[in-house]
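Appendix B. Chain record.
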Amino acid sequence: MRFPWGQGRGQQRAQSAPLGLILVLSLVIVGSSVVVSLGATALVDTEARLDVSRAETGMTQLDSQAALVALGNADSQRVSLVGTDRSTYRIDDTAGRMTVNITNHSASPPTTVTLMDERLGAVVYENGNQEVAYQGGGVWRRSDSGSVMVSPPEFYYRDATLTLPLITVRGDRSLGSRASISKDGTTQVYPDQAAGNINPLDTGTVNITVQSEYYRSWGRYFEERTDGDAYYDHENDSVTTTLVVPTGPREVTSAVAATSAGGQITLSGSGTDPARTDSYNSSVGDYSTSRGSFGTITTAGDVYVKGNSEVDGSVRSGDRVEVKGSGVVTRDVEYSTTKHIKGTVNGDVRQISGVEGAGAIDGLVNRRVANASDTNDNGATSSISGNQLDSGDQTLGAGTYYLEDLTLSGETLTINTGGDDVTIAVRDYVYIENNGQIKVNGGGKVRLYVKGEATSASGHHFHIYRTGDVNIDNANNSKQFWVYGQSDFDAVIEGDTDTPQFEGVIYAPAGGVGASSVSLKKAELYGGLVAGSVTVDNGGLVHYDRALRNERAVPKNTNIIRLTYLHVSKNRINVTSG
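Structure tokens predicted for this chain:
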């Protein structure tokens, strides 16, 4: 008996053998192809990496030879450029740009001069997505994952001195296996006596901006070389580093100091409300226990002591001194040009050669306010909403805060330092009235930076009106509260039936041509005043804190790159085939 399905199963077995063989052969062929393909790719990648490595070595050699031509005594040099048929060398005349600006913050308004604005150019090696370039005296590598520095550019910063011998590249669009490097001239940019660019620098900031495909690596080098900050503009492939002419250390060594030659200090008291300066020492005790006769006045300009005003200390002027009426100076008077003494001087009167003013701190104030605007602790306190102090009595702890304005009308702002520093950056103005008060507790310092983009309704950047106070709960220790202003800063502390009290320092030097001013009328200040001009009217009392003599007015900041000497030059080279 036959079963039809038995015959079918036999036929299937007969067909499975060749099908299996075909499948096995297909797998072998596909596998072999994959292995060959992967091996070929790996081989190509290995060759590319080796070629890039050789190119880096060649570019470093080119860097060395280019420096000999641009900065040394060699007129020309030749260098080999290694590569494969997959790689190319070329000159890109338009690659990159370096700009060097210097801003003088003592001018009014501040002026910015471009010292250098140069195309860098580059010698570029390319192999697929890999790129190695010689630019700005350094060698850089770039790929899809970013850029790195192979060897550093010609940029040297040490001990507040910047040396920047920029090397720019021009030449043939394409290069062969050898390159010839020749000198194309050098231009001294800074110092330049004829242009008035001299060392040492006395004020301002220097900004160096590099626009380049390798800007991130330039920025990392700036940060490494200077221990400062680099500011990235990713949209424009650029990075900027800022070097600052030191504004400190400075000490407040007088009760009242006017810092510009065109400024003046005037004491004008009358009747039962004399204007007076004297001193105390908060490191010894409060005013009542350490009162002294060191309420000195110092100015690069004029001094007028009128009415029944009294300087319980000395007067030192870089120009004219007048002591009139019942005016009294208990110690010496020093003047530079003329004197008019009709009042009383208990010490010597002598002529001196002059008094040096203090540079403005506009750059410092601008930077501190800008930095606080970007990064602050406003969100960590319930006393600030957005960029405004909330209404009612408020408290701030240690930290950095940014305010559009600081207005206290009947409210108290308590600052608990806890031994740490507090920074308050104000964009526009400070206005305190109607028993408003700033109260400082703890052992830390409060630094209040007022940029002064706008004034209060009274027209001032800092105004304490009638009943308002700044009070330090620590023996009149003025070292704990500092107000900083720019060269156009305007401050008024004035009373009426009541006498406002300010404990601290107002520090707003005018520089050479600024017009910062402070006016004190029927008000009492414990600490010191520094501005372009100062007026102490009826009832104005300035008690100089002698503890300020050893106190740095401008705080240290490790992120500020300090600059005193600047050396910049442009050094041009041509790179051609051959």
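Further analysis of this model is presented in Appendix C.
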